[in-house]
């Protein structure tokens, strides 16, 4: 397993070296075009993406690029191809630890049951210890990879006693259908597909209780943030409004609700699965973002703790003395002030 982990780390390190060649001038103040990397995770901002609210609020032309994993998003941001991206805490921690010029400006979600370890029906896995010797698929350098390793540690199962396969979510769904794997730790839409013929062994909500929380975040390249703070303020305001809409009425949403249809269209998920998945995740409001729990200190601590775990797992060589400079509450504070809150 570690060969693959180290290989992935080397790739990110190589890509990160490209960053130095990109000057802030690449994002001139009069260039109102931005490339935003997104994933298929189930969360309210997909509604704004589907309806063009980000473009309307910011006045920018947005090129939306879909990625299968957070590691892919981080690599694209390192190269400069993507200026704003959606990623999970594990690939983010690995990226900033290696010196990538990124900063978290909005916490999209505190992950709960929307990410889960599912075991195949007929795999004879009824308890954690049954995972020993089995094939478990997970996207490497992802929040689910981190959660899987944390769960194995919690259960006292050495990771080298489980065959852990590095597969992207679409590959997981295909491998599951072929019967090539016994279990997988993943998110939707792959999660919704495999759970139909499997059962959940644990979720990231439980792993959080065991002391290894994960989150999803919107991050920006620092050079872009310096040149285009107006975009990040508008982006934060729109994302916060979507989270507030869900907090207010989301419990009533069904598969037939227009908002759910928008999320399903952008994520590629089955609308029937989404209401339950949404309820398993916490989506922080705009006026909660700068709190000590989140951008006011908690996220920096979570990144530090995640990086320490990654170092223990030999996925990064060292950790930063302070992760505070990789997090900013400036844009959400401006967005909140502009909203009259």
Describe it for me?
The longest helix has 21 residues. The protein folds into 2 domains: 205 residues, Periplasmic binding protein-like II (D-Maltodextrin-Binding Protein, domain 2), CATH 3.40.190.10; 96 residues, Periplasmic binding protein-like II (D-Maltodextrin-Binding Protein, domain 2), CATH 3.40.190.10. The protein is globular and about 60 Å long. Strands 2-1-3-10-4 form a 5-stranded mixed beta sheet, with helices on both faces. It has a 5-stranded mixed beta sheet with strand order 7-6-8-5-9, with helices on both faces. The protein has 341 residues and is α/β, with parallel strands linked by helices. Helix 2 crosses helix 12, helix 4 packs parallel to helix 5 and helix 11 packs across helix 15.
Q: How are helices and strands ordered from N to C?
A: HEHHEHEHEEEHEHEHEHEHHHHHH
Report the CATH superfamily of the largest domain.
Periplasmic binding protein-like II
Classify the beta-strand content into a percent band. Answer: 15-25%
In the CATH scheme, what's the topology name of the largest domain?
A: D-Maltodextrin-Binding Protein, domain 2
Q: Outline, from the CA principal axes?
A: globular
Query: What class, by secondary structure content?
Result: alpha/beta
Low-pLDDT ranges: 1-26
SSE arrangement:
Elements: H1 2-16, E1 33-38, H2 45-51, H3 53-58, E2 61-66, H4 70-79, E3 84-88, H5 89-97, E4 102-110, E5 115-120, E6 135-138, H6 143-155, E7 163-166, H7 169-178, E8 183-187, H8 190-194, E9 198-203, H9 204-209, E10 215-221, H10 222-227, H11 229-249, H12 258-267, H13 274-279, H14 298-312, H15 330-338
Parallel strand pairs: 1-2, 1-3, 6-7, 6-8
Antiparallel strand pairs: 3-10, 4-10, 5-8, 5-9
Helix pairs in contact: 2-12, 4-5, 5-14, 11-15
């Amino acid at each position: 397993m570690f060969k693959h982990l180290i290989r992935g780390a080397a790739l990110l390190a190589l890509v990160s070296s490209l960053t130095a060649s990109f000057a802030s001038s690449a994002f001139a103040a009069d260039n109102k075009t931005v490339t935003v990397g997104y994933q298929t995770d189930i969360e309210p901002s997909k509604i704004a993406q589907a309806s063009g609210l980000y473009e309307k609020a910011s006045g920018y032309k947005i090129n939306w690029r879909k990625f299968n994993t957070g590691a892919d998003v981080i690599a694209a941001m390192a190269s400069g191809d993507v200026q704003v991206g959606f990623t999970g805490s594990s690939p983010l921690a690995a990226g900033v630890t290696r010196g990538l010029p990124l900063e978290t400006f909005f916490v999209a979600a505190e992950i709960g049951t929307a990410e889960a370890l599912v075991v195949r029906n007929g795999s004879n896995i009824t308890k954690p210890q049954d995972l020993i010797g089995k094939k478990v698929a997970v996207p490497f350098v992802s929040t689910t990879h981190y959660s899987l390793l944390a769960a194995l540690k919690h259960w006292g199962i050495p990771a080298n006693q489980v065959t852990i396969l590095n597969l992207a979510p679409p590959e997981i769904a295909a491998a599951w259908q072929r019967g090539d794997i016994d279990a997988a730790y993943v998110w939707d839409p792959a999660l919704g597909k495999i759970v139909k013929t499997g059962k959940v062994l644990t979720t990231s909500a439980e792993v959080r209780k065991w002391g290894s929380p994960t989150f999803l975040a919107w991050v920006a390249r620092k050079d872009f943030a310096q040149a285009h703070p107006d975009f990040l303020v508008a982006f934060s305001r729109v994302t916060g409004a979507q989270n507030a809409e869900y907090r207010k009425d989301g419990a009533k949403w069904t598969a037939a609700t227009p908002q759910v249809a928008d999320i399903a269209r952008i994520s590629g998920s089955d609308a029937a699965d989404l209401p339950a998945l949404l309820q398993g995740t916490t989506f922080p409001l705009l006026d909660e973002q700068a709190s000590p729990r989140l951008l006011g200190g908690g996220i920096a601590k979570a990144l530090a703790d995640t990086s320490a775990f990654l170092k223990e797992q030999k996925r990064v060589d060292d950790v930063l003395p302070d992760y505070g400079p990789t997090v900013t509450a400036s844009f959400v504070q401006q967005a909140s002030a502009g909203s009259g809150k």
